[in-house]
Every structure is written in C-alpha cells, then in structure tokens.
Fold these 4 entries.
Entry 1:
Amino acid sequence: MIDDLKDLSDNLEDAESDIAKYDSDGVISFHHTSQKSKYQALYEDFEVLHSFTGKVGDIVDRRIDHPFYEEIDAFVETMRDATISKYTTKNR
C-alpha cells in the first residue's frame, strides 16, 4: 500500500512536470506536494502496530480464554457430580 502511494506521488510529480512543460499559455494550474516522507513514517508505524497486534491472540488466550475454560470446566464438573440426594432443606 505504501509503495502504491509512493508510485502515485511519482505519477503526480510527473504530471506536474509535464503540465509545466507543455502548458505554454499557463491555463492549467496543477501543483502536487510530495508526502513520501510521511508515507515512510506511516509504514514504520504500521510495522509497530502489526508487531503488537500479532501478540494479541496469545494474550487473550492466556489471560481471558484459558482461565474462563478452566472455571467453566470446574463448574460443569461440579454440576455433573451433584446429586439431589445430598441436599436437604428444612420443612416449614
């Protein structure tokens, strides 16, 4: 994506140059400001973001999913092993 933006910027610079070269009467006004340095910084930020998001799945699994599975398994086992004959109530 960043390379495509750089290519687009190059094309716009070429268009600006060609317009300046061939527009002898100056009727066409076109000016392009290159943002290539910003594209590179954006790419580097994307790389950092990508490295963090690659770790999210593992963190969610360890911190949320695994403890939940353990607790739900313990609950299900308790419910499975429960017998109504072990419980009593007072008659009122």
Entry 2:
Amino acid sequence: MKRTDKNEYGNKVLLLDTVMGNINISGKEHYLHEYQAWNRALSYLLEENAYLKTRLAQVLDINTDKQFVDLAEHFQNSFIFNDELIREMEIDIRAQQEILKKSAMADLLKGDQEAFVKKQDKLRNEMEYFEKKFSQMKNEFNHYLVSHLKKTG
C-alpha cells in the first residue's frame, strides 16, 4: 500500500507498507536512485553500441558486396548517432542531478518544483524511448547479419 507523508524537514515522502514494515522514501532519494539507474543503463547501451560497431567492422572485413556495404553504412550511422544521443542524455542527467544537489528539496517544493518535475518527466520519457529504439535497432541489425549469413553460407 502506498501513501505519502511529510518528514521532519517538510519534504514529501512516499510510505510503502511492506511485510517488514514501513519504508520511507523521499522525493530526493527517489530522483537520485533514478539518475543512478539511468546512468547504469546508458553505460550498458554505450558498451553494447561499441560491440555492435565492432561486429559490423568484422563482418565488413569479409564482405564487400555493394548492397551489403550500403546497408552497413546505414547501421554505422545509427551507431554513431546513438553514441551522440547517449552523451547528450548523460549531460542532461548530470545537469538535473546537479540542480537537485544544489537546492534543498524544500526549495524545489516551494518554487522551482514544476520546472524540475517537468524536466524529470522529460528525461524519463527520453530514456524509455531511447531504450526501446535501441533495442529495435539492435534486433534489426542482428536480423540483418543473420540474413547475410544465410546467403553466404
């Protein structure tokens, strides 16, 4: 069961009733956890993107068919674009994290909360969208390689 309350500093906290008792989670703690999760996800995606680029280079070393090379160029451009997006999201997340660190949660609750929450929602939506698109692109790339392997034996 979820309910909210205020802690001793007047900050809103989420109370979760569990089998082991109540767990207090402040908004600030939640946001910090969210940043950590996003940063872990972006690190993984950056590493996975590097692996896909390496795999593409390996396949291109053994196949120079014009049609294959053209499609490979499309994927290479996607990988480069992904690197850029990941770096931009890391910067945006760091900036949002700094805002949270510099201002007390009470200050955010008083004045800038709406802008802060809006930006947080935007980042959350961007992360969700990027993770879905990355997964789709990765699946397309793997299908592309498998279909090529079938043709070359």
Entry 3:
Amino acid sequence: MRQITGGDALFLYTDKQSRHQHISILYCYDQSTVRGGTLRFKTILEHMEQRLGASPIYRQRLVQVPLNLDYPYWINDPDFDLEYHVRHIALPQPGDWRQLCIQVSRLHSRPLDMTRPVWEMYVIEGLNKIDFLPAGSFAVLTKIHHTALDGVAAAELTMGIHDLEPYPQQSRRTVRWRSQPEPRPAELLARALVNNTRSTFRTGSTLGRKLLQAATTPRSQEQQAQDKSPTPVTRFNRPISPHRVWDAVRFDLDDFRLVKSAVSGATINDVVLTVCGGAMRQYLASKRELPEISLTSMVPVSVRTTQERGAGGNKVHLTRARLMTQEADPLKRLSLVRDEMTKLKALNAVGARDLVDMQEQLPAPTLLLAGRAVAASRGPGRAYRASHNMVVTNVPGPQHKLYFCGARLAMFTGLAVITDDMGISHAVTSYDGCLVIAPLSDREMMPDPAYYAQCLQEAFHELKQAVVTAGKTGSRTRRITKAARGPARAKGVNRPKSAAGAGRGKAAPRATTRRSKAR
C-alpha cells in the first residue's frame, strides 16, 4: 500500500464532471514489420500481460480515506481484469486522419472509472488512408489519470511497453504480483491522525523558513514585471464543455534545430512556443479576435530528479510565459520568446523544487480546500487560471525506432488537460526525428480544429521562411532553403486553407519537403 503525494492528489481534487484530469497518449503503428503481416488482438493482450510490471499503476487502484482526512492510497487491485482495460475498436472506412481525430476526441472526452486502476487502452484498427502510414495500420490510445503520472513519467511508460527491435531475443522478466485487501476505514483514519500531526509540524517548520527567506529576499524588477504583466481575454478563457476536439501536426525535428540555430541561445522549446503563438495569432486574427497585447501560456517544467525516474507521480513546476503574439515578424518573435524563457529560467532556478516539495507536505484537508479554490468558478482560482490563455507542454521522446509486438512505432503524440478559462492545450512530443504538436480544445471554443492544425503548419512555414530570408543559418542555409522556397504545395508544405474549407480534415501531413499523399 502506497500513499499518493500532495502534488498527485491535487489532480484528483480538481477532477470535475466536464474537467476530467486525465491525459492520453496516441501511438500509430506500421504492422508491415509483424511476422505474417498482421497483428492479432490476442497477441496484444498477451504482450500487455507480460509488461504489467513496467509500472505499478497498471494494477493499482485508489482507496479514499473517509472524509478526505488524508491522501488516498494505491493498492494492488484484487479484482484486476486486463480485458476491461484493453479494448478493441475499428475506424469507419475509409479510415482517414479526420476519422481518427474524431474517434480520439470522443474517447478522450469520457471519464475514467476511478474505482478501478486509472487507465484504459484502446486498440484502433482500420487506419487505411493516412498519408504517413501504409494501409492496414493501427493505433493504440492509452488514457491515464494525471494523478498517476506526469508527462515525463508517461514517456517512461512508453519505453516500458516497447522494444528496441521487432522481436528481442531476451524477453523481460515478469514481475511477481499479488493482490492486496482494501484497508478498513478504522486503519485509514488512524493513519490519517498520525500523518496529519506529522505533516503539520513538518509543514510549519518548512513553511516558516521559506516565508522568512521570501520576505528577506528582495524581488527583482523582472519578477515584479512578470507578476503584473496583463493577460488578454480570448474565446478560450471561459468555462469548457465536456466535449473535446483534437488534431496533430508532424514536423521534421531537424527543421526545428535549423530554425533555433538562427537565434543565438534559442532552444527547440523556444521554437515550439513561437510556432504555437504564431498559430494562435493567425487563428484569432481570422476570427477578428486577435488581442493587441501578448497571449500567455502555462508551461509545465519537470523538476524530477534522477533518483525519481520510474517512480511515476507528478514532479512539475508551472511557469507563465508570454508568447509575444503582438509581434508580427516571426523571427523577431522567436528572439523575444528566447529572452522571455531565459528570464523565466533565471527567476525559477531557485525555489521551483521548494514549491513542489512544500505542496507535497501540506496536510490533505488543507490541499483539498486549495484544490477546490483552484477549481472554483470565481475568486483567486479563476483569477489564476485566467492569467493564462493556453498550455504548451513539451516532452522529448527517444530518437530511435521502437516496436510494439513487432509493429514499428511510426508516431506517438499526446492529449494534455484543458480546464475552465484555459480551453486549449498543446502536447508536444518528439520521436525518431519527428516532432509533433497536438492541440486539444473544447468543441464549442474551436469548431474547426483542422484549420487550427493548418495554422500551426503555416506558422512554422513563415518562421522557416523568415530564417531563410535573413540568411541566418550559415552553412546550413542551403538545406533549409530547399524546404522553404517555391510554391508550398510543390514542396509538400501544406498551406492553410480558408476557415470554411478547413473542417474537412486531411491526414496530418509532415511539414517537410515530402509531398503529401492525402487526397
């Protein structure tokens, strides 16, 4: 029996009817590498049964303490049923990208059963008309509650169910497992009394020391300016519905590396933020809703230590970054974003881990009240949410090929969380030379997700073209120029259509020099 931390519990306390706190991972597979050319669902079940030991979350469910007087516990579920969690569905034909996006959106919109282990896996067959996959491909969508893990832990989970070659000669050892009886309420209440007494003294000592340190440390002008920077109100800053829309855009990771090299000190994450800001700028401008001041984004930053790898849970500090959307020039915007992120890293270098540790030391009743305040429709919780227009979370993945039951992993991406007053999020992943930006939003706030996906493509194309025009990539200019010059369609870079035609939803093309095969 293992107790969850305060940081994990916060996702549980803020889970509401239309604001489900689960994340999803979508894997797309080419099964031409499978022996015989076809993978059976039974083989996937057998594979997952062998890999349940990759993480304890697969077999564990939550047990609540009476009256929420203490944080819940993970116990090995005595009624665990693998076939409940691993499910098999098919896309309607012709099985194109638009149909996959709709199916993924619907599955992600549904809540998890919190009385069971907090995950579900959907094997989706019938991917027959997607430009970067051969006919007969399949996908796997895995939903996991945020209480169980953050983005970094989810990436570690990916490695746990995949192999470095189609059929490794040495199979992984099966981890021994036994069920646990659910503890009695009296035992949980006794533990709560001890834990709350201990955490009260520990929190009082730690909090007093940190408050004294904060009070005696003068805040810089940059910190004060960051706290006071205004956030505009957009269509995404209002309560969300239970319905979701999702899409994903694939890019060549080398192109992002080339673009970042044009601005000294810039990172790939800076380029990602610039592209997301540029896409949002174009999308809102098409609706005549572009604010004059910069949009802001919540940017989760992992503070997980080396010793904490593989432990699951959440070790994340949340920062607030301006996306400089008031700047029309994409290259200037990248420079401004680089300056913004450099400043934020310096401001958060001291204290980010302390904030996470202090949150985990708070007594459960205190954090429960804090969670309710954060999720409230008015007051300081709403003010905090409304200080952000979106979320951009970047989780780098492995840059080598992975295999699942012999099938080659062609792409993996994610679906992050949205909540009231932050109605759009961007999950950014990278794998095997490909970077994917996957926006998730509310169906009523973004009725045309395919158009926004094309805005992301156009934002990167404009940034890449600006780099070429400025000639800032030195000896590498020739390579990036080849991808950026000439008619966009002739080189396979899909330019956005008008908003009216965007909802038809072509297969998510890779914004590279390859010609799209979408019809």
Entry 4:
Amino acid sequence: MGVLSLIARVQDIQRLRQILKVFAKYGYGHVIERMGLQSSRLLGVILPQPSIKSPSDPEQLRRAFEELGPTFVKLGQVLSTRPDLIPHTYIEEFSKLQDKVSPFPLEEARETFEKELGYSFEEAFLEFDSTPIASASLSQVYRATLKDGTRVAVKIQRPGIKPLIKSDIDLLYILARIAETSIPELKLYNPVKIIREFERAIEKELDFTIEAANAERFRRNFYSSSDICFPKVHDRFSSKRILTMDFIDGVKITEAPLSGYDPRELARCGLRAVIQMIFRDGFFHADPHPGNVVVTKDGRLAYLDLGLVGRVSEATRDKMLMLLLAIIREDFEEVTRIFYKIGIKEDRVDMEEFRSDVVDICERHFGKPLKFIELGTFIKDLLEGALRHRIRIPHEYALMCKALITMEGVGKKLDPDLNIFKEAYPYLTDIFKKRYSLNRLSKDLVTAFVTVSQLLQEIPPQLKETINSIERGGVKTNDIPEHKKVFTLERIVNRVIIAFLTCLCIAVSIILFVLSKSLWMVSFSVVWLLAGFLLGIWLIISILKSRNF
C-alpha cells in the first residue's frame, strides 16, 4: 500500500497496528479488509482470518475510541456535533464518550505552571488544593484561592499531549485517504476533510487563550442578563497551557430540581440562552450538554467548558431563522426551498423527488400532538433524507442543529412536555422583527446602494477587457465602433441594476407592510412600493424604446 510508505517512525507503525487491532477487536474487521489492511509487509498480520461482517454497533465503536485514548475520544466528541455526517444513534453514543485517564502528578502540574507563567503556586495563590477536581485526557483542573480571596479553577494542560495527538492525527490522515479510495460510499462524507476539521478543532482546544477569549466574548454578550452567567478569566494567571477562571459552585442543570429549582423555568431559560447565542449573537456554545451547564446558588445558568464554540455569519443566521419559522408555520414548501438552498449538492438533484421527500418527512412529524414533536428526530430524518439525494448541509448549520438538539434533550429531561417549536416561536419572531427593523433595513439599503455604485464604476473597464478577450479568441467585433460596444454593454448592465433595485424596493415595501404597527409605517411601505413601480415602468419603457426584446 503506497500510502503506508509515508510512515517513517517505528512507534508510528506500532501505533497503527494497535489502532487496527482495536477496531478489529470491536467488530470492524470487515472495514479493515475493505481497506486492504488485514495484512501487509509493513504492518504484519492484523486479521489472522477473514472477518465476518457484523451489524454496525455504535456502542462498540465508542468503546474502541475510549480504548484508543485521547485523540480518538476527542474525535468522537467532535463527531457527536455533526448530525449532518453520522447517524443519530452514533451521535447519541459518542455523546457518552468519557476520558478514562489517571491524573498526572502534582509535580508535573507545578512544573508546567511555573514554566508557562514564571510564578510558583505559592506566589500566585493563597491556597492550592493538591487533589484535582477533574482529570481528562487533555488537562486537569484544580481548585485554588487567589491572594485577594477569589476562588478559582485552574486548568493545566497534560504534559506531552501535543506530540501524542499530532502523531495520531497523522495516522488518521493516512487511514482517511485509504478509506476514501477503497470504500466508494465514503467519498460523500469526505473523510480527509473530516480529519482536517478535527485537527483544527483540537488545535484550538489545546490553546487555552482561545477558550479564554471565548469566555470573555460570552460574558460581553450576556452582560445584562440576570439569568445566564459565564466564568471570569484571570489573565495574569492564564496562558496557552494554563487557564485560570472564577470557580463556579453549582449543580448540574438536570439535577437542579432535586435542590428545589423550577424545572420548567430552567428548561425555558436554557432554550432562550441558546436561541440568543445563535440568532442574535452568532456565537454559541456548540455542546451545551448537562455536564457543561450548572445552576448557581442564586438560580442562574452558568455555562462551562467553552473551548468548542460555533460562529455563524448574519446571512447564515437569517437562513436558519427563516427555516425554523417555516417549520413552525408548517409551510413545508418553504422548508423545501430553504433547505435546498442551504445544502451542498454533490450531484444533480431531482427537485421533484427531493420536494416530495421533504414534505413527506415534515407531514410525518407534524401530524402529531405538539408534545410528541421532537426537533432532534425531525432534523435527523431531514438530514438523512437529504443525504439520499447527495445533499449535505454546511458545518456551521450542523453545529447550530446540534446545539438546539442538545438543549432540547436537556429541556425534555427537565420538562417532558416541553415543545421546542412552541417555546421558541415568540423568541424567534421577536428576533425576526428586530432583524428586519427600519434600522437594519436602512443599513442594508445603504450597503446595497454602495455595492451597486461600485458595480457601475467597475463594470465599464471589465466589459472592455471582456471585448478584448473575445477578439483575442477569434471573435471579431471590428465592424462595431468602440464607443458603441461599451455603450451597449453598459446599457444592459444598467438594466440589470435597475431590475435589482426594483425588486429591492418591492421587497422592502412588503417587509414594512408586514411589520407595520402604525399608519406612518404603512405610508412608508407605500412610498417604497411606488418607487419600485416607477423604476419598473422606466425599465419597461427603455426596453420597448430600444426594440431589443
């Protein structure tokens, strides 16, 4: 196998043998055979006899990941945020992945702290608890008290973890390339790209300054909230491998009702927080599972473990917002249109079949009483239906879906009658109205006019270059005067721009009319409609006068 020749170090060969043997042990020998890795001169014999294909078992794969250690545990955790890539049963199983590692010695933690910051524990802290309160594959956390009496949590990166993970990722790239060429059905999922995304995610997680920046951004976004809080970062005692934050004392959100907190209010508060993160801020906690959300003594929700976050542009938020509102209104034709627009097409799509499948999935789910409708199973069916048509949704949409699905799961544990669609609707419509407020529309219009103005300035020289290119390619336009060429093409472009502005005016008019709460807003919408009408009339007259139609 040519790709295997890229492995140079003996320890990498031994590690690859270990990886393959563990997968074979947990029932994935048939996959190893399809990849042609059951035996080779470099690796030796992995499978002593042909493997019998057993049904795919998510639990067995999770156990294999846990046995293989930190890199694979993290890979599974990252995959659990990708409902667009793997089946729902695997997502549920990967969400249970746990780091089974022994704590590293206190002396190693002390050495890392001093090397990174130049302080000893005694110089930095009034007290430092030598027993870690949490130990994971990448780091472990200690409780301490600063000199001013502030209680903090100190996260210290596990020594030697970076080279170990880099070595495993190099091997994963090799396995992904082999899998992509030897198992055709995997091409749709692009294994090499998955490993590349995982590599970027793990690099960010190993740089604690990124988590510190995430925490500060969340604190700014929720500065005025009385229900939600995030730990404060202490920059003086933080670096790429050390993170010191306020210690937040609380109980897991799913256990809070046992302490007297209202489960219904907790569920709705968590849902509001995720909706604000995604649709207002475009910056959200990508994995808000119960272990990452605690309830403080004063009843606020505190979000922890802020390394894995999602970022979405305003345009992406708008599409997702419109999709969810269409789902809630049960406008299944609109759901089909938006979902198709969002998706990445790997092949030609039979639009009628796709529409039929999406509508069928929607009707199957929304023909039930509200309390039985679940966003998680609906999104799962929608994504699996899209994959049948070789349509994938972009990573950022998958992360948004995962965050909403996770929060729905937490909410259902707190309040079994919770319906995420019913609860989310008022918040989503409020965000929609703010998104399409007069202030936002004014900004959009200014942007549109600036863009059109720039187009008008840029197009003439571009058109001239296009004409020159045509002539260089053998199509002669010498019989047409130069000024006429440019004039004709400019006139065409101007008409396109006028058509665009006409549509823009009509769209603004409709939005203003829908959102109108007073007579002056209705009047304003009529003005925009009239402007669009006049532009349209001008366009029609200019076309008729030119006789080129």
